[in-house]
From TrEMBL:
Alphabetical list of PROSITE patterns matching this protein: HTH_ICLR, ICLR_ED
Organism: Phytomonospora endophytica
Domain of life: Bacteria
Gene3D superfamilies, per database record: 3.30.450.40, Winged helix-like DNA-binding domain superfamily/Winged helix DNA-binding domain
Annotated ranges, domain HTH iclR-type: 15-77
SMART domains in UniProt: HTH_ICLR
GO biological process: negative regulation of DNA-templated transcription
Descriptive protein name: DNA-binding IclR family transcriptional regulator
Amino acid sequence: MGARELNGWDSAAPAPAVLRAGAILQALAEAGGRPLSVADLAKAAGGIPRSSTVNVCAALVSTGLVRAATGGFVLGPGLVGLSQAYLDALDPVREFATRTRRMTPIDETLQLGTLEDGDVVYLAIHGGRQPLRITSRVGSRISATCTALGKAMLAGHTDERIRELLTERQPFPAYTARSITGIDALIEAVGETRERGYAVDDQETTDGITCLAVAVPGLPEATQPFAVSTSLLTGHATRERVETLVGLIRDLVSGMGHA
């Protein structure tokens, strides 16, 4: 394919069958492992005709992306290889894995995330010696508005850009009584993040848990942002421990953006 063809992809008409396949995969992902019947899939995927749903599922089953199960269909093992290939292609993910393997073990868990459509998407997790029971897992997503990872990455945007991205999503999800739910409060919190050089989630996602995050520096302009965070019990978040963990994360992310 020539450069002209590559540059003109945005003018192409999306193939309906591929769009339907994507909608079906998304519906199965949101089902959380529960088999969906053809009728349920057709409805969950946006009202696709049942005959088309059957045909698309047959194609997805043949490629291993979907698996037939009792009661309908579920995601297939073929997605694992695709997911890993996507992660392997991201330099920060490779660097995070390499650097966390070499570092001295710590009690806290470290997490690498990126920003996508106003959400934090978790890309890699390195378990500590005493990991907390956190809900994040690779591939999961959560609103960027109340997470340290999200605020660390949003700090790389101007306030105007943050308003463009998130104003229409108000009120933001409230996971605890401390969660930020409005754009003005978010802008203020992001400003504080820029000033101190790292982001803090003070029980905004989970009661009793404090999170700290630092954005990956040195990324090429206009590329997706990345950040690394850690979580600890709020009662253990002393000034000394916070300074130590922030320093550790800064050392970890240094060079990840241009490795």
